[in-house]
């Protein structure tokens, strides 16, 4: 028997109606007067026994049972203390599991990730765990697909818990992590992170800041269980989480090692330490582990030593690698093994050039020819007559850049050029991020003259800002050389200028930052300019590209990256950027969108942005705030975020902002949005408007499963 029949009988009994009939499978229900507190027309028992097929046409289509999940969620919204609440949340989750009962080509029923928060909280509350802090943290609990980890992240006198779980089979992010802590005599749950895989996330707790309190680390993949994924971390200050890595930092290759009751964070090349704000690269890591004696590990370590200006140590390391009896190394996209010892000798020659020792450089290349005459590196030495080269390092780089030979023949250039650094190639040693910090810069001599002497081009953009507060202005400019575009600030110090690569994610200058951040290669913009939008005396870089613009704003010792894509929906538009003066002396960044090549008109023609504490904030039109989690996640308006706002965040006002931005693609999505709009209105205290929307869906000439929902729900 269809659910509508059972509910019709229930309505008859409750309202005392005598004209109801159970033979009409789609009756026209009576129109009820609007009520500030609608009387529930369903019961937990009916909802638990209902089937998604009750809402499906014949033949069934994928996701047609979704109205049942919303009917249950709506009931829970209005009856949160129902004794069957946990069973009802579990029923919603089960509706999203892979099933063949609907006969669809895709076995996934529909997405129910929006129900994760309610389900996880219900599972947790049902356990009635203590909030008193235990002397020893209890062991983790596993309840089906949910793991509960006890901790005390905020350092108060109460126990905290982490809820980590996954909802298999959903098409979107299917796992989430929540932090539950005791606040004002009740449990408060907060979303931490979503992860897009079917096995959850790797969670580790331990002290990295030296305060004997645990920090939280989460590694989660964005491409399934075969990928490693980013590492996220938080420490707690004044009871609130603070990110341990700056936005934009590449943490995908970081590992966590427990040592003496603490956690050590490192990559294969760099060790990280807490600098009071972030975990930052602070020390070169010597090769260790089972592959520490391989020639690739020796080359990587030597490259790190070179970046630090420890040339003699780098050469000594490379001499050890050149003396290996087996120089086989993997390289290239096909993982071919080749003897890399010729590369070692080739690199020794480059480092000798960095030391301005031409005789030693020529000797290293002579050794290469003598030991490995058939190698491709030897061919490069012969073709470019390097054994007689007597010029500067910049001239040497330009010589090779004319043809850009791949020393390890067969290595794809695109892979090579986009690698943050490649121990087998010459190009990273010619990169401005390698060369500029290794030079001595005298602020008594104009920068342009020093660049000319070095043989590099310098494009000055501004000398009007004092970034470090020492009373002397710090020049800003660009080095565009060998096809590599790099923006720089030359900070004045007592010892001279200190080059700071503007797009690195770490505060101030980090000598090892080029081994630890992803923006080693910076795309050349169409135009670049220096601004001061917030009139605070600190500059911003404005880079304009075809499909986006980027603003790097100086705040708290670093440039913060703000990137705005010139897309509206799925369509690309161009935009003209202007600076709009404001009455308070600041400026707004104004984007005037133009029709695109297909003749489409942009939905938003005019957008304005303010700059606050390094962050670009849209002011016109006022945007929806969809930030979620502990600062790492941001979502665009979509049907998924509408569900999350309504049933995850319990924020009907936010749901009302989202729903007006969505454009339905068919009658099903139109009815779905109208139903969710109606529920948001009712939860927001606008019952009369909600009833009108539900009635329009219930009486629609073309019916869907949402029509049945509206008929029952009114």
Automatic annotation (TrEMBL):
Keyword Signal: yes
Signal sequence annotation: 1-22
Keyword field contains Signal: yes
Keywords: Signal
Cited InterPro entries: Integrin_alpha_N, TPR-like_helical_dom_sf
Coiled coil (UniProt feature): none
Name the UniProt record assigns to this protein: Tetratricopeptide repeat protein
Lineage: Bacteria, Bacillati, Chloroflexota, Chloroflexia, Herpetosiphonales
